[in-house]
Amino acid sequence: MKPHEGEPVDIGQLLDEIHELERRVEALEHHTVQVPMAAVMPLQEAPFAGTGLALSNPVPVAGRAVLGLAGAYLLRALAEGGSVPRLLVVTAAILYAATWLLLGVRSRGKQGIAAATYGITAALILAPLLWEATVSFQVLPPVATAAVLVAFAGLVCWRDHGIVAYVTTSAAVLTALALMIRTGSLLPFAAALLGIACVVEIRVVEIRVEALRGPVAAAADFAVWLVLFLTSRRGGVPEGYEGVGPMAAAGLFAMLAVIYAGSLVWRTVTLRKDAGVFGTLQCGVACFIAIAGILQTTQGGAAPLIGVVCALAGAGAYFTAFLRFGVGSRNHQVFAGWGLALGLTASFLILPDALLSVVWSAAAVVAMLAGAARPTLRLHGALYLAAAAVASGLPRAFADAFTGARLIPAGPELWVFALAAVSAYALCGDERAPLRAVPAALAVVAVATLVILSGRPGAAILASSRTLVTCMVALAAGFLHARTGRAELLWISYSAVALGALKLALQDFRQSGPAALAVSLVCYGGLLIVLPRFRR
To answer: Is residue 288, in this structure, part of any structural domain at all?
Structure first.
């Protein structure tokens, strides 16, 4: 502070100001030295901190990969030269590829680019090596090649779930498929693909390798289907392919179903995870291929055994659905659906055709009874009833009753089914209208068919009698709708009206005489007048 003229100078105040300036200068000096260092150091370390590419300089990695390929070609030259036994060279080449796989596995935690590069290098070494050792040099038999593929894919997938596992497993799957088609050795490479699928399904329970499941499952399905197709074709296995014995083929088919059914059960029942769409569909495809393959291979001789297995599995699926999972959950729906499908399959394989309709009709009624506490069973009851309708011959009998020129008397199966359909509809209770519509429609069709087939009207009045029955169905359904308010009865009523109009145009005007046609028109006209009064 500058003193005024004439005022005395305060030495103490000047000293205080000098000390203050010295303190500020000292603080400023410390700030200018420390702050830049604190700001510069993080900027130098930031690009390398917290990233998966910390030591992944791509140029040296690419150089190592090129050297790896050079080593592979050197081994190939030794094999072609003949100076060294080819089996020894192939063994060294397999160990050489395994070394690159281990490098990829060890690098995956720190060096993402290096792990991917080493995995691709190992795949580029292994796949051509096994192809030439099996096809060109014929040093490795197909069984040994298949074992090497399973070992490489299995061990790497077991130790790693990153890019190395994806690359190696994909390469092993493609190599197995190519060698299977090229060499004609169906059994070893189909078994190898099933082994890889088993490893992937086991690992998917513990870690996320979901992207591998689809390609591996598709390859396994194709391999097993190819075995089924070639072994069951007319004329036997084509030239160039090795035959597969019935027991070995049946073992392949069964193993495919066991792998994916076991994976689904373990994932849902033990680990309490949701059954995904892929797992459910793949399990269905695997079981279908297995059942069809075993039946085809054994010429139907294994049908009773498969039926018993399906019955036990279906019962287990039903118990699991209702005792293990909550009603309405996805796993509950999946296992209940499996119980239905396996139950229908077991009945079809075990029972004679004459009993199928009776058993499925009884199952529908029981399911409707139990559906009061378990709503899922009412849906299954409707599906059992639909299957019983087909087994009882209802579609054929309905077509004969309403369009055929000669009426064939109804069998006892149709009478049993009609009684079951009426009972199932009465037991539906307060279920949703679309679900109630299935037993209602089947009951109406069955009863109308029995009325026409039992009356057996003559040819002169056949068309008019069909119109009369149709009008009676429409009126009865409309009346019941007015009394109960059930929407499905109204749907059935107006469906009968539409069917009656179509029948008048196609049958009555062409086949009936004037008197019979007059009766048909009176019935249909009266229906159109009375029916709207029943609508709520």
So the answer is: no
d(CA 414, CA 453): 11
Which two structure tokens, joined as six digits, stand for 500?
């009656």
Q: Which domain holds residue 442?
A: 351-451
Q: What is the Cα–Cα distance from 475 to 497, expressed in whole angstroms?
A: 9
Q: Are residues 488 and 525 in the same domain?
A: yes
pLDDT, one tens digit per residue, over 346-401 is 999 999 988 999 999 999 999 998 876 777 888 999 999 999 999 999 999 988 88
Structure tokens at 145: 């090649």
Q: Which value, to the nearest 10 degrees, does the dihedral of the CA atoms of residues 472, 473, 476, 481 take?
A: -150
Asked which of 451, 468, 483 is the last residue of a domain, the reply is: 451
Residue 377 and residue 370 in contact, taking contact as beta carbons nearer than 8 Å: yes
pTM above 0.90, yes or no: no
Q: What share of the chain is helix, strand, coil (3-state, %, to 5)?
A: 80, 0, 20
Please indicate, yes or no, if residue 77 is contained in any of the structural domains: no
Q: Are residues 378 and 431 in the same domain?
A: yes
Which string of DSSP letters, residue by residue, matches 367-382? HHHHTTT-THHHHHHH
Q: Cα(111)–Cα(99) distance, rounded to whole angstroms?
A: 17
Contact 469, 440 (CB under 8 A): no
Which amino acid does the sequence have at 309? Answer: V
- Give the SS3 label for residue 15: helix
SS3 111: strand
Distance CA 381, CA 54 (A): 62
For the stretch 157-195, pLDDT in tens is: 766 556 777 888 889 999 999 999 999 999 999 999 999
Model confidence at 422: pLDDT above 90: yes
Q: Which residue has the higher pLDDT, 102 or 220?
A: 220
